[in-house]
Amino acid sequence: MARRENNPGERRGYRRDDASDRREERNRTRRENRPMPDRPKRKPDDLTEADLQMDENTTRIEGRNAVIESFRSGKAVDKVFILDGSQDGPMSTIRREAKAHGSLVKFVTKERLDQMSETGHHQGVIAYIAAYEYAEVEDILQKAKDKGEAPFIFLLDEIEDPHNLGAIIRTANLAGAHGVIIPKNRAVGLTPTVAKASAGALNYTPVAKVTNIGQTIEELKKEGLWFVCADMGGTKMYDLNLTGPIGLVIGNEGNGVSRLVKEKCDFIASIPMKGDIDSLNASVAAGVLAFEIVRQRMR
């Protein structure tokens, strides 16, 4: 008679496989309940003077959208300073773009970013990039020609507020304008605040700087452009023909378009208003007139 093998598992009413499963379950429970050692928090990077150094060919860009668009437009981003601990979507995008482009990334405290910031609204990120280069008026005309479109250009008469300039550049881009022209004197240039206010549009919209806006208008008229400026005493913008090659002239925040520049414009357009005050912010006026031009060009 064959001897039967002793099997403790069978005597208890369960198989050996069941016992193995139970042991594994007990071990897993122990592992899950085991206290985890505290992971040391990474300290923000110590910045040296070399880290903060900027040369004449470098500019500072602040804000998430502005930095992301700088990467996507192909700008040479040298260094990126990120608020330590930031883990949201835009910051992840910035870190990914920085790694892909070989940019140096430094994680810093909010206090340090506040000290570095020129705008006061860095949104947790500041980047050092190759300085924005001014275009030539010819570059703007060539851009229209390359697109097979009638030129559409913004000309700004002594805009002094960088937030207004940045907002107008953003509007110009969204309205499909081929470029922006600003004067060299008595007007703001392409500062970090302008770049931030443009929300990245500065990477795609050429900006030319000229000595005299009035003279530039005369030269562009030879290229077939007509010019319209904003003024309360003008013709209602809906009654004007704003199609074809056109330049939109926007004046200073306080005084509007100067007399000499206004005299060189072919049309003076007024924006219908029904409120209790008599003027619009320069960037808002630019937006209203620009999209009336867009509407008419699409007909």
Model description:
With 299 residues, the chain is α/β, with parallel strands linked by helices. It folds into 2 domains: 49-130, Ribosomal protein L30/S12 (60s Ribosomal Protein L30, Chain: A); 137-297, SPOUT methyltransferase, trefoil knot domain (Alpha/beta knot, 3-Layer(aba) Sandwich), CATH 3.40.1280.10. It has helices at residues 8-11, 16-33, 49-52, 64-72, 89-101, 110-116, 137-147, 162-174, 192-197, 213-221, 259-264, 282-297, and strands at residues 58-62, 77-83, 104-108, 125-130, 152-156, 179-183, 207-210, 226-236, 246-250, 267-270. The protein has a 6-stranded parallel β-sheet, with helices on both faces. Strands 1-4-2-3 form a 4-stranded mixed β-sheet. The longest helix has 18 residues, at 16-33. It is elongated. The termini are far apart.
Summary?
The protein has 299 residues and is α/β, with parallel strands linked by helices.
List the helices and strands and how they pair.
Layout: H1 8-11, H2 16-33, H3 49-52, E1 58-62, H4 64-72, E2 77-83, H5 89-101, E3 104-108, H6 110-116, E4 125-130, H7 137-147, E5 152-156, H8 162-174, E6 179-183, H9 192-197, E7 207-210, H10 213-221, E8 226-236, E9 246-250, H11 259-264, E10 267-270, H12 282-297
Parallel strand pairs: 2-3, 5-6, 5-9, 6-7, 8-9, 8-10
Antiparallel strand pairs: 1-4, 2-4
Helix pairs in contact: 4-5, 8-12
Keywords:
299 residues; alpha/beta; 60s Ribosomal Protein L30, Chain: A; Alpha/beta knot; 2 domains; six-stranded parallel sheet; four-stranded mixed sheet; 12 helices; 39% helix; 19% strand
